[in-house]
Amino acid sequence: MSLKTLENVSYFRLNNEINIPVNGQIPLHKDHEALLAFFEENVRPNLKTFPTVAEKIAYLLEHDYIESDFIKKYSIAFITELSDWLYAQNFQFKSFMAAYKFYQQYALKTNDGEFYLENIEDRILMNALYFADGDTELAQSLADELIHQRYQPATPSFLNAGRSRRGELVSCFLIQATDDMNSIGRSVNSALQLSRIGGGVGINLSNLREAGAPIKGIENAASGVVPVMKLYEDSFSYSNQLGQRQGAGVTYLSVFHPDIMAFLSTKKENADEKIRVKTLSLGVTVPDKYYELVRENADMFLFSPYDVERIYGKPFSYIDITAEYDNLLANNDVKKYRIRARDLEQEIAKLQQESGYPYIINIDVANKANPINGKIIMSNLCSEILQVQSPSELNEDQTYKTLGTDISCNLGSTNVVNLMQSPNFEKSIDSMVKALTFVTDHSDIDAVPTIKNGNRKAHTIGLGAMGLHSYFAKHHIAYGSPESIEFTDIYFMLLNFYTLKSSMNFARKTGQTFDDFDKSAYADGTYFEQYIEDKQLSDKVATLFEGIHIPTAEDWRELRQNVMTHGLYHQNRLAVAPNGSISYINDVSASIHPITQRIEERQEKKTGKIYYPARDLATDTIPYYTSAYDMDMRRVIDVYAAATKHVDQGLSMTLFLRSEMPVGLYEWKTDTKQTTRDLNILRNYAHHKGVKSIYYIRTFTDNGDEVGANQCESCVI
Q: Where in the numbering of this chain does the Ribonucleotide reductase large subunit domain appear (predicted)?
């Protein structure tokens, strides 16, 4: 038997029986039976085994399955000892879905695809050895965090660590085009190269002159952003990793760009094929001024990027539209286009109902909270990366006159359920930071110099969280309740404190800080003013954090002094990705949003439907597993807002609505039909609460379909 000749397996049938109630009860035991059958019928007969760890490592090296350089940094005695320790932990998958996902997508297989070469213990061993870079103590710590599922690297890192034939370890990239043909051409090439490497690519188009703008004095010569979007879409379709995955990208445009209506029209179902983009995602950057104009039901003016750059001497994205709006309005040398603010607001809401797009980046909110010198101008394919960038200047031969900075992001997630049981919360976080830092320090994207330059200067990482709803249900806390918001606030405050401490220790040890640290709010200590107070916890939440040290005002003062003295190694440290399939392997809810179904139905490409019960689903937890589609989205926004206060980047927040909403869910509704007004109110509420970004709007329709349910594979899987 081999993986290609599996016949008469029972695990899919057993798993599907979860969805057939017996005497009104969910037969959850069928999932456990499916899990046992999967190992009996699939894994054990098709796992290539070896007498010793040494012989296995020798085989993997001889047949070029793993790299040799990182293995040489350890003795075979240590590798054997660590492997034995991992197996001694007696790891058990808790669901069929978790095991199935791991062996289908993550386990190393023979070149012919006939046999498995890894269990999860072996994949964790490779991760621990690879990211520890020869440090045996760190390798042991990382193995501990990974096998007990307190830490989960993002898919590119977890999947590729140690492999010889692999993609990059980073998750996604952010690049920008400036307003000239050389830059556009260079950015198209960058998109091709980055899509080839792997991961999604975000592209900022706000700097490009609008359709009808002059080129070299010739009026109405510019074609605007839409033809450039088509170039990117074709690039991603072409550069698809030998057909293994669809290249993925998102283009961002300012709501004050004159092409904004045409930009949004590219995603309409009835759009002309000449302008329609099918696979490219859309995002808009939204300054505070826009919300003000919408509230006032005022006209809004869109400004020519060509004129703005000519007058201000810097690209359109780097202008603070809110601060400069009146000046731009009064300047006769800046061409303006008048529209009604609420007409644009209506177009955004209609498109979100129809497609889930565009993503919303509250760009002023992000920049006001940004402690780093510079300006955030865009986000990534999943809307959680928010870092400063700087533009490049190109010579006619496309070499760089001034090399700007763009962004690569490497991500990882804490598992809330399991990290809260860590014997040493601080040590756990420190090990995670070290693993992520290895990826940053060893990522050299030579094909795109601006990405390499940004990474070299910033050393950024993105530690986040998954399993928040699972944790709430386990402890009988309603998602969005005051207790849930308080817990989220404290949890992310802890992530912030201990990642800051780890980053400071990196700077102290290496003598290095991120570029322009001395110009940051960390360097002058002002960033820490919000934390110089002791936290008063409710009895319930205090009990949840029992045994975990909550930093006091004095702890924060000490950290502030150490950071001001030694600096920080990482420009950015925290970001919450949507993480989908990787959360299944961890047997918890994805990211920090609520579940959509208690028994989730997944359509797998070749096998049909697989059912996944929520973590710890039982009679006592069912009342706390309310579907996101039946939940007031303001409660979701409240939870995200509590986390946002402590996250120096962003959080990938999806809003879930039904086309027919539950009666009484929102006090402003007189009927149940979802309207654009509902989306307008929720987006404005998120802005008011200080949420930096909104990812998809997902609508569950009457016929059981989901609109806007596409997933960002680079961060999700």
A: 556-578
Task: Give a yes or no: residue 3 inside a domain.
Answer: no
Beta bridge partners of 285: 254, 361
Domain end residue (candidates: 594, 615, 645): 594
3-state secondary structure of 287: coil
* Residue 331 clears pLDDT 90, i.e. is over it: yes
User: Residue 327: inside a domain, yes or no?
Assistant: yes
Number of domains in the chain: 2
Inform me whether the pLDDT recorded for 457 exceeds 70.
yes
In a domain, 642, yes or no: no
Of 382, 409, 712, 715, the active-site residue reads: 382
Domain match, 479 and 394 both: no
pLDDT of 714: 45
Q: Active-site residue among 145, 233, 345, 384?
A: 384
Model-level pTM?
0.96
Alpha helices in 215-270, H assignment, sequence order = 225-238, 260-265
Q: Is 19 a catalytic residue?
A: no
Instruction: List the catalytic residue out of 127, 204, 380, 586.
Output: 380
Phi, psi of 124 (to 5 degrees): -65, -40
Catalytic: 715? no
CB neighbours (10 Å) of residue 399? 11
The residue type of 543 is T
| Range of the structural domain that residue 215 is part of | 172-407
Q: What is the pLDDT of residues 219-277, one digit of tens each?
A: 887 899 999 999 999 998 887 655 455 668 999 999 999 999 999 999 988 878 888 99
- Residue 638 domain-assigned (yes or no): no
Q: What is the pLDDT of residues 101-141, one digit of tens each?
A: 999 999 999 999 999 999 999 999 999 999 999 999 999 99
For 495-532, what is each residue's pLDDT tens digit? 999 999 999 999 999 999 999 999 999 999 999 999 99
| Beta-strand pair 172-176/407-409 | antiparallel
Same domain, 228 and 276: yes
Under a CB-based contact definition with an 8 Å cutoff, are residues 313 and 319 in contact? no
Instruction: Establish whether 384 is a catalytic residue.
Output: yes
Task: State the angle between helix axes of 341-355 and 676-688 in degrees (0 to 180), rounded to the nearest 10.
Answer: 110
Do residues 418 and 385 both lie within one domain? no
HSE, CB side, 13 Å, CA atoms: give it for residue 3: 20
Judge if 420 and 449 occupy the same domain: yes
Contact 183, 191 (CB under 8 A): no
Q: What are φ and ψ of residue 694, in 5° steps?
A: -125, 125
Name the domain boundary from 559, 594, 629: 594
Q: Give the torsion sign (CA, 364, 366, 368, 371).
A: negative
